[in-house]
Design goal:
alpha/beta, Glutamine Phosphoribosylpyrophosphate, subunit 1, domain 1, Rossmann fold, 3 domains, globular, binds 5-amino-5-deoxy-1-O-phosphono-D-mannitol
Length: about 600
């Protein structure tokens, strides 16, 4: 994780760096810092905490038209000032910011200490800055000093290095994203494209193994091994939409309320009403290929994996093709068997999740074809897959994923429909589904206008020592998503189980007053879920029930939260909304940092 921003050009750098950091803060917010080069001196400003904390310690004016900045998510070493980037070399001649993990840092650090160099902090990144400075002291160029250092390193890096005596920045990438925006007599470096859009549309995405020498008006690209290569300039043409908070108190609440429009974006132009099918151009799949698909595998982490589980069920139901979801962080370590005829879907909001990227690489290495289901245009997964579907949620800035979840489910629904129509789904069934799917944004709006007694549910869960979430079929992953949201935002331990599994163990947790959240839309499994509700109530549990409007199951609830009626295959798009709100309001009530929950970051770019 961590966010990097850099600038070299003709403007005063400080404001640009701080604004860049502010846009990248979602990537980590343990500590933050900037370094600026001016008149043969480098000034450093660092602090524990967020960009706001940095702003409060910055002098009004720090001159310099070249600088690097970093917002940290701690991996190696605690959250301390010493471990805050930018790091400075023992001789003050090299400064760097790093995103990634240096696996052999212990060995490198020992050899530096043996040469009399004192390690100031505990980060793995610090070994890089001293090693580069040692090489530089041998009289080689900055480029050679970085290249020689990186050749000795095992691990991942997105790196931006500044030199006291050279008017350039050196960037390198291996596993952690880095993008260079080219302007007129100025260059910008960023961990993701969004902070660049207000400065330039022309960008170069560094690939793994790339090393770039950047001056204010040139960019020289080479591989780590030394061969020079051409820089492919891409144009940022995606309208990334509004990313400011506006009047909302938190990004999460704003994003929850953006879901109807986001889903409209995701659906728009992607359905064929006449044929009752999906039309996902970016998948580049011919009907005769789809007919032969033996199975589908979906991969993701966290919320993306949960959306994938819903996609898996929809694919099996609509297309009758075996589908399985894998947690990406486990997948590649299990030496998976890859069938080149199967379809692999990598699901990720950021498109930068290291575990998902590693799984994609493993599949590709073994001859499998992987499609991205991604939000961020031009992200690593999107480019690695080269084919797939953008979910078009717009920027999601809150660490807790909300609108990306519903759009992942939306995109996977359309994909399942497209696959289904080549097999078992009739035209009429397809048309019915399309009609209902197009209604979902309206239904979401109508729910969000009147969300029901969420505060009563919040009262129950906010004082609980743990919360159990139950659901069946498509509602089992929804229950999981609700539990994940409450855990990550309110730090309350939550368990999510398919309702039938509850009596095989988790029920032992229940005692008088234990809150149990049950997701029970009016589908073919409702009656079975009802049995689980009775079993919980018999043990004194208080039931918070998410159900369809007008359904008599409401009588079973202590807190009944109705959502609009919808096609049974589309219920997750509605039942998840009260769970998101419940987690949000609980976190607010408990005084937690909703958009930046402790220990987390939006984009998990380390394994
Ligand atoms: O960017 P990705 O969708 O690949 O991220 C995957 C997870 O890290 C992410 O969904 C995480 O679980 C969220 N914080 C959940 O709200």
């Amino acid at each position: 994780m961590c966010g990097i921003f850099g600038y070299i050009g003709h403007q005063q750098a400080l404001g640009l760096l701080v604004e860049g950091l502010r846009r990248l803060e979602y990537r980590g917010y343990d500590s933050t810092g900037v370094a600026l080069l001016n008149d043969g001196e480098i000034s450093y400003h660092r602090t524990v905490g967020k960009v706001g904390n940095l702003q409060s310690i910055l002098p009004a004016n720090v001159p310099g038209s070249q600088g690097i900045a970093h917002t940290r998510w701690a991996t190696h070493g605690g959250v301390t000032l010493e471990n805050t980037h930018p790091h400075r070399s023992f001789d003050g001649k090299v400064t760097l910011v790093h995103n990634g993990i240096i696996e052999n840092y212990r060995a490198l650090s020992k050899s530096l200490i043996a040469r009399g160099i004192e390690m100031v902090g505990e980060t793995d990144s610090e070994v890089l800055v001293h090693s580069i400075a040692l090489e530089l002291a041998k009289g080689v160029s900055p480029e050679t000093s970085v290249r020689r250092t990186l050749k000795r390193v095992r691990g991942t890096w997105g790196l931006c290095v500044m030199f006291l005596e050279h008017d350039l920045l050196i960037c390198a990438r291996n596993g952690s994203p880095l993008i260079i925006g080219t302007g007129n007599g100025e260059m910008f470096i960023s961990s993701d494209p969004h902070p660049l859009t207000s400065h330039t549309q022309q960008v170069v995405y560094l690939e793994d193994g790339d090393l770039a020498v950047v001056t204010k008006d040139s960019l020289k690209l080479s591989s780590l091994q030394g061969g020079s290569q051409e820089a492919n300039i891409s144009t940022l043409d995606e309208d990334w939409g509004e990313s400011d908070l506006g009047d909302a108190p938190h990004f999460m609440l704003k994003e929850i309320y953006e879901q109807p429009d986001a889903l409209r974006q995701c659906i728009s132009g992607r359905i064929d009403r006449e044929m009752g099918s999906g039309r996902l151009g970016g998948m580049q799949l011919q009907h005769n290929t789809l007919i032969q698909v033996p199975h589908v595998r979906l991969l993701g982490c966290g919320t993306a994996a949960i959306a994938a589980e819903i996609g898996q069920m929809l694919i099996e139901r609509m297309a009758r093709i075996p589908a399985v979801t894998h947690i990406a962080s486990e997948y590649r370590n299990n030496d998976p068997v890859i069938n080149p005829k199967a379809l692999y879907l990598a699901v990720s909001q950021s498109g930068e999740t290291a575990d998902t990227i590693a799984a994609v690489k493993e599949i590709k290495l073994k001859g499998g074809q992987v499609f991205g289901v991604v939000n961020v245009v031009g992200s690593s997964i999107a480019r690695l897959c080269g084919q797939g579907v953008y979910i078009h949620s717009g920027p999601e800035q809150s660490v807790a994923s909300t609108k990306a979840f519903t759009n992942m489910v939306g995109a996977l629904t359309i994909f399942a429909m497209q696959l289904g129509r080549t097999r078992h789904l009739s035209k009429d069934q397809g048309r019915e589904l399309i009609q209902e799917l197009q209604q979902v944004p309206h239904l979401m709006e109508s729910y969000l206008e009147n969300v029901g007694p969420i505060d009563e549910a919040v009262e129950l869960v906010s004082s609980a020592s743990s919360v159990l979430y139950l659901g069946r079929g498509l509602s089992a992953p929804v229950a999981k998503e609700g539990a994940l949201k409450l855990m990550e935002l309110a730090y309350i331990p939550c368990l999510a189980y398919p309702a039938g599994e509850m009596k095989h163990g988790p029920m032992a947790l229940l005692e008088e007053g234990s809150p149990v959240v049950v997701v029970a839309p009016n589908d073919h499994l409702k009656e079975k879920t009802l049995s689980a509700i009775h079993e919980c109530k018999a043990r004194g549990a208080k039931i918070i029930l998410i159900h369809e409007q007008g359904d008599e199951i409401a009588e079973e609830a202590h807190v009944s939260i109705p959502v609009p009626k919808v096609h049974p295959l589309l219920t997750p798009l509605l039942t998840v909304l009260p769970l998101q709100l419940m987690a949000y309001r609980t976190a607010v009530l408990l005084g937690k940092d909703v958009d930046r929950p402790r220990n987390l970051a939006k984009s998990v770019t380390v394994e």
